[in-house]
Amino acid sequence: MSAPRPALEAAAPEPTPTPTAPAKNGGKPPRGIAAASRSGSVRSGPPPARLLEETGGTAGPGTYAPEPPYRRPSMRAAVGLLVIMVVLTGVAYPAAVTGFAQLVTPHTANGSLIDAPNGTAIASSLIGQNITNQSLFWLRPSLTDYSATVSSGESPYGPTDPLLVNLTEYYIGEYGLNGTTAPFDLVSPSESGIDPDLTPAAVLVQIPRVAAASHLSEAYLLDFVNSHLQLPVLGFIGPTYVNVITLDIDLIAVEGH
What we know:
mainly alpha; two-stranded antiparallel sheet; 9 helices
């Protein structure tokens, strides 16, 4: 009889392959590892002493060397920056703004000057003048004699100051407004002292005096003043006013003197 066969042992199951993440760089090892492999040695052990010193002995992933110490800027850099800013803000910028204004509005850029028929500048529409001719319209009082280079240097009188009453009565007599309702413009100085504008009421109240001195009718002067009214911008921005400088210059041309 043949010997009985030994029982077959159960075959061990084959191990299931573990999925792995796709290798970066096309499956190539990092440069450092590849270079070390080629050289036959892979560096191991603690980090270099220099890296430990820079990172305070805590070298590891995600650590960085501290910022370099602050260095005070040199005098050469400070002077260079100063020169650049002076050229930009003191030369280039003013020149660009002035050039642009000369191209867009040369009249206002040059001071809104008004020339006589012979080409001589006789006034600016932005600065009042001391007009005393009886045949012309007068500006409001000025504490600086209409000088653009002198500040008023005097505060207006308060409502309880008795000098305010005396000054108001003086202006009423000076402008010949006795027996009339004096407009506020003609009995109080402007803040700048060179304001060339008046309200229409302050101009119209002077028509009897101008008519008597210029031998022009009051009706003509009324139409003349109305033609010089400056209306509000867009109909509602700012007040209606009259520029007395341009009004008188046009009146001089009418009167012929």
